[in-house]
Design brief:
Structural class: alpha/beta
Low-confidence stretches: 1-6
Radius of gyration: 17 Å
Helix content: 25-40%
Order of helices and strands: EHEHEHEHEEHEH
Strand content: 15-25%
Length: about 220
């Protein structure tokens, strides 16, 4: 286990701007292009609110495309957010760059997306706290991925040649961690919203939005 943990913990949100046809494309068959983008927008705003309310440290929006894209300005996000732009490459390359940049500043990092409305302030606080005693914290999702990866140090094997968007991501990540080896705190399993079948896991306020979108998409 790494013995050089710092007290600072940064939440980095890896996010796409909610542009119709650009985000949540796997939900388009159920919600339509505009409906999928509207849900993406609501989930993104919820994620930002949750990350700020958790109070574990600075919150950074790692954005694609550029933060100067009009869709970002239209969201009216809090001015307190830090901003960065995602590098080129697959999801692993983009996450690795964000993690390495944060860790090089002496901060611990919680990498999250915007696809898991069940991820709340308590989960973020638990993940951040666990990094005081563990090298890694992980919130797995029921589809075999994860909603959060917390790190107190960097290792490229957690990101390189990972089978992203498959049901083996969390298992493969844990297998690689065992070989390093680092200590891992695995937290409660949650549900991502990626496919139409996942919509049943939405909280009630977002279900109303999707029911309207589904009706319009018919």
């Amino acid at each position: 286990m790494n013995d050089t943990h710092t007290s600072a913990c940064r939440v980095v949100i890896i996010a796409k701007a909610p542009i119709p046809g650009y985000c949540k494309t796997r939900l388009i068959p159920a919600l339509g292009t505009e409906g999928a983008a509207a849900l993406a927008s609501r989930m993104l705003l919820r994620t930002v609110q949750t990350a700020l309310a958790a109070g574990v440290g600075p919150v950074e929006m790692c954005a694609a495309p550029s933060r100067h894209e009009a869709a970002w300005a239209a969201l009216g996000l809090p001015a307190v957010l830090d901003w960065s732009e995602q590098r080129e490459g697959d999801l692993g390359a983009r996450m690795a760059a964000a993690a390495q940049r944060t860790l090089s500043r002496g901060e611990r990092v919680l990498l999250i997306g915007t696809d898991c409305p069940e991820l709340d302030e308590a989960h973020l606080r638990s993940a951040a706290a666990s990094l005081l005693a563990h090298d890694v914290s992980l919130v797995p999702t029921a589809d075999g991925g994860y909603a959060l990866l917390g790190l107190s140090q960097f290792h490229p094997s957690l990101f390189d040649n990972m089978p992203w968007s498959t049901d083996t991501v969390a298992g493969e990540t844990l297998g690689r961690l065992a070989k390093i080896p680092w200590t891992v705190k695995t937290l409660q399993m949650l549900h991502d919203i990626d496919e139409p079948a996942d919509l049943r896991w939405l909280p009630d306020d977002l279900k109303t939005l999707t029911e309207e979108a589904m009706h319009q998409a018919i």
